[in-house]
Specification:
heterodimer, A: alpha/beta, Rossmann fold, 6-stranded parallel β-sheet, two-stranded antiparallel ribbon, 17% strand, B: alpha/beta
């Protein structure tokens, strides 16, 4: 097996660290933006960057981080919503990109960490390691504003632009194989209740 | 006097009116032939935000996010689509206590012609029972508004999903010309 070095589609992009970029991303959030972390390391690194009440940590339902974030974005059009998803998870639910593109929410940003492996299940290669270009797939699905981050500064710039509510955007990042830094609490009711509170939503709306 | 008062309302008019009276504004669906008049009426009513998704679990994820953001939503699908959502129910909706409102057009029974539909139909209620999800099979139009209205209120009050299985006895089903 060839050594995994991240996504095939981003051959010119720097291989970066997911936790480092998650810190950079969270550091740009100044308006109580909502963040939905996908199952696994996307979640763990989000958790390790501080448990903002506007963060939702998905404990199952692999592949649904973008649909969940999209639902939040529909419900709260004034709030920007960010989905953090891994390459394996996105590959499981590619159709959601077409749905997002069809509806074109202005307040949704999708960030894909692409390390080319199913990291928490033992490092098996994903299709994006050798064949699938996730940005090309996103563009082909109708997300015109889709790009690989070339390096950390480029990521910061792309994310800052995405937060301007110009339409749905997708930022893909080649990431290394370092494990997630934290581990989420595994209490779905508490996570959901805290998130709703963070979004200013009452239980029986 | 509106149109519904001057003639007998159809099942799909009752479903739409009950969703509206309960402020369920977001509808995500994967299409179904029997649900077509309901889906068309929902699309035509500006009260609702209505769109198709590529898969049923995607539709579940969207209404879950919308609920957490303060917007009530319902999902429409057919029996075979239900076969794709047990993981989303078991690992997201049920443990997170999300009052997802799920309408299933029942295929696979009462004159079904497609064995694939019939087999999926047999798995549906055992899956819902094992998850402890409130489920109502609706066969009679005179019970339709009561069941849906009360069950939506219960779902919200108890923070639990509910599944409405709309029987061919109610909707007419899909007819096979033998």
């Amino acid at each position: 097996m060839t050594k995994q070095t991240g996504a095939v589609g981003a051959h010119n992009a720097k291989v970066m660290n997911r936790f480092d970029l998650t810190k950079r991303l969270v550091g740009q959030l100044k308006r109580d933006e909502a963040v939905v972390g996908g199952i696994g390391n996307a979640n763990f690194d989000l958790w390790a960057c501080g448990q903002r009440p506007q963060n939702f940590y998905m404990l199952g339902s692999m592949g649904l981080a973008i649909p969940i974030a999209f639902g939040v974005a529909i419900a709260q059009p004034q709030r920007h919503v960010i989905a953090l998803e891994g390459d394996g998870s996105l590959l499981m639910q590619l159709g959601c990109l077409a749905t997002v593109a069809m509806r074109a929410p202005k307040n949704l940003t999708m960030v894909v960490w692409d390390n080319g492996i199913y990291q928490i299940t033992g490092g098996q290669p994903t299709a994006s390691a050798s064949a699938a270009d996730l940005v090309a797939i996103a563009r082909g699905s109708g997300i015109a504003n889709s790009a690989w981050a070339a390096d950390e500064d480029d990521f910061d710039r792309l994310f800052a632009a995405a937060l301007q509510n110009g339409g749905p955007s997708l930022i893909a990042v080649r990431t290394d194989n370092k494990p997630g830094v934290g581990t989420t609490d595994r209490d779905p009711v508490q996570i959901r209740a805290r998130f709703m509170n963070g979004l200013g939503v009452k239980r029986h709306q | 006097m509106n149109d519904m008062q001057t003639r007998a309302a159809t099942w799909h008019e009752i479903v739409l009116a009950t969703l509206k009276s309960n402020n369920v504004k977001l509808i995500t669906y994967v299409p179904d032939k029997v649900f077509t008049p309901l889906i068309k009426a929902l699309h035509d009513d500006p009260f609702f935000t209505v769109f198709a998704t590529t898969r049923e679990e995607e539709a579940i994820g969207i209404v879950t996010g919308a609920w957490m953001g303060g917007l009530r939503g319902a999902v429409l699908m057919q029996t075979s689509g239900f076969g794709t959502i047990p993981n989303a129910l078991a690992s997201l909706v049920v443990p997170s206590q999300i009052p997802a409102l799920i309408f299933v057009s029942e295929r696979g029974t009462l004159g079904e012609f497609n064995l694939g539909q019939a087999m999926v139909c047999k798995t549906m209620r055992p899956v819902l029972d094992s998850l402890g999800v409130e489920t109502h099979t609706i066969t009679r139009q005179d019970e339709l508004a009561f069941i849906i209205d009360r069950s939506i209120k219960q779902a919200v009050a108890t923070q639990a999903p509910v599944v409405f299985i709309l029987s061919p006895l109610l909707t007419g089903g899909k007819v096979f010309e033998a």
